[in-house]
Amino acid sequence: MPEARRPDSPFWVEADSVEGDLLRLDAEESHHLLHVFRASPGAPFEAVDGAGHLYVCELAGVERRSALGRIVAREDGAGELPGSLELLVGQPHFGAVEAIVSRTVPLGVSRIAIVPAERGERWRDTGARRERLVRVARAAMKQTRRTRLPRIEFPPGFAAVLPPPVSPERLRFVAEPSGRGWSETRGTGVSSHVTVAIGPPGGLTPAERASLEDLGFAPISLGSNRLRTEDAACAMLALAREGILALARERH
Amino acid sequence: MPEARRPDSPFWVEADSVEGDLLRLDAEESHHLLHVFRASPGAPFEAVDGAGHLYVCELAGVERRSALGRIVAREDGAGELPGSLELLVGQPHFGAVEAIVSRTVPLGVSRIAIVPAERGERWRDTGARRERLVRVARAAMKQTRRTRLPRIEFPPGFAAVLPPPVSPERLRFVAEPSGRGWSETRGTGVSSHVTVAIGPPGGLTPAERASLEDLGFAPISLGSNRLRTEDAACAMLALAREGILALARERH
After folding, report:
1. Quick check: A246 and B182 CB within 8 A?
2. Quick check: ipTM above 0.90?
3. How far apart are CA A98 and CA A132, in angstroms?
């Protein structure tokens, strides 16, 4: 029989499966802990609930194939940015959305809105597709030790997203080849709440650009070569993430 | 018969297939231009040679199944950064290397070195694997309208890579949770030649860290959650890319 290995990522626990200092993993996560990692009573593991909580646990026992954990410590907001990082993206094909979710969750994205755009792709956000994206987000969240599951939304248009009003603390940027450089933009790097908009693979129409600028999105050029939707999203979020981290460092 | 479409990405041309104002595409690229895009004589297309040249062409004719292009304009260094951006990465599994190549070429990486590391994965850089990585790099280069194919290397260790000496113009950074923030680091954002080192999925050993610091790599923290090797590589390169672009903007 292979030796037990210590799990290297937290397990998922539904928020309503935590009661006092006990929590119960669902069937899939229990199988993983008990059979893949061969945990015995007393074995340490961690769990996250997607609502910002990290639970440090010991396996207390097994009840009807569910692993029960005794919570020995908890931490709020573990692995989360000291701010918020929102992404609006003109609808690309579904594979690109999966890539965006998988690649932007590690960067700390707190909300992903897939927005219909004139030059974007057209497909319906069926239940199966939403479920698939949540699974991708959850896996990325666990693997990168975040604790808060980003919201994934399908609003009817950019203007329908209604991010919080622009202020020195709440900035909005749109990737746009004719824009200014990130580090030329006033206020960059000193805001805790950033919303980033990225056009669909075919680009934004002039009307969409104008509408985003009316909403306070400052156009930002990311360089002279073409970036795919998912590359542009990650590049903008990496810059915005560093801004949020820099502000928190300054304040401490 | 479907209508001809204008190709949206450049074609690959071998540097030694360019002579005077004519160039010849290889069999695979010719098939693509002639049969997928159904180009007829006079049709416009672009080609890149991976050595920094973009050729704007018209289809001149077909000779033994090869498309011949008449060069009507050429541009040197199109889509390239005004500097260099090198990545050394502790060897992850091969799939992660493919992801790194596919994701960092759009960000302008000029050299990718896959380095054996104590906690890294172990596999041989066979000819087939190198060829696969070059194909991935070439596809990403064309799709993102770069013109220079990054070098992909397998040196025997971090110290064997010998990046150019550190100077205010040539900086080196290593991703390291205990490091300082990117924007706290003196000189950040004002260098045209940046080398970034990322540990393998298991992390760098203390000895590897010390050896990189001896080579002048400044430790940089990318935030409080865990980043996969490929996420860390992209986040660091996005920051370094913006530094290179910012410096070029300042100078013009």
Report:
1. yes
2. yes
3. 8
